[in-house]
Design a protein that fits this description.
Shape: globular
Low-confidence stretches: none
Largest sheet: 4 strands, mixed
Distance between the termini: 21 Å
CATH topology: 60s Ribosomal Protein L30, Chain: A
Strand content: 15-25%
Number of strands: 4
CATH superfamily: Ribosomal protein L30/S12
Radius of gyration: 13 Å
Strand order of the largest sheet: 1-4-2-3
Mean pLDDT: 95
Number of helices: 5
Length: 121
């Protein structure tokens, strides 16, 4: 059963693509990790893409993020675990991550955003 804040299903291969792109952005662009930081980047309109883990407990920690992203017109997606997301940004676990600068993952994120738009329709 998906958490209450998961508003659409993200296929496994798309999750993998997002995780790889996050890793590239971490190396060549600009990434913020941790829900407080992510929330600030969304509110300021600095986030270009937000990734939320599906296994956050309690779910209230990230429950506001999808709505906030939609309000601000910022694309977002989900990955299965916060451990996997954290690993890709160099920490033990991350409930959410925002990308401020795609860096060399720019083309990857363009594709990811298009795929997510198609899923949400």
């Amino acid at each position: 059963m998906a958490a209450i804040y998961v508003r659409f299903e993200t296929p496994k291969e798309l999750q993998e693509k997002m995780l790889s792109a996050v890793e590239i952005s971490k190396e060549t662009g600009k990434v913020r990790k941790g829900t407080n930081e992510v929330t600030k980047t969304i509110e300021r309109g600095d986030a270009k893409f937000v990734i939320i883990a599906e296994d956050v407990n309690p779910p209230e920690i990230v429950a506001h993020l999808p709505l906030l992203c939609e309000e601000k017109g910022i694309p977002y997606g989900y990955v299965a675990t916060k451990e996997e997301l954290g690993k890709r940004v160099g920490i033990k676990s991350a409930a959410s991550v925002s990308i401020l600068d795609f860096g060399k993952a720019n083309d990857s994120f363009k594709e990811i955003i298009e795929q997510i738009k198609a899923i949400k329709k």
